[in-house]
Amino acid sequence: MAGVPWCEACDRYLTPSTVRPDGTCASCGHPVDPGKLAKATKEADEELPPIPWHLKLLGGAFAIYLGYRCVQLVEWLAHR
Asked: Which residues of the chain have pLDDT under 70?
């Protein structure tokens, strides 16, 4: 069971969110073998990389397209 948070006293796997911040089991209070828990919290603390420029460009083009389609919808509703 290496690699997952495991409580020896309860004899069960624990999800990282159910382990208390002090590293004990939420149901019995015994220490938990951290497994991937330590790595998951370390990765969560790292800063996210910046959004790529081409994704920003795609988002802007999509917003312009949706705006154009909304204008077409308003014109279509006005002429009906």
From this structure: 1-3, 35-45
Q: Is 35 left (phi over 0), alpha (psi -120 to 50) or beta?
A: left
Determine the 3-state secondary structure of 33 from DSSP: strand
| pLDDT (0 to 100) of residue 43 | 57
Interior/surface letters 44-54, b for 16+ CB within 10 angstroms, e for the rest: eeeeeeeeeee
Residues in the chain: 80
Query: Do strands 12-13 and 6-7 pair parallel, antiparallel, or not at all (unpaired)?
Result: antiparallel
| Dihedral class, residue 48 (left if φ above 0, else alpha if ψ from -120 to 50, else beta) | beta
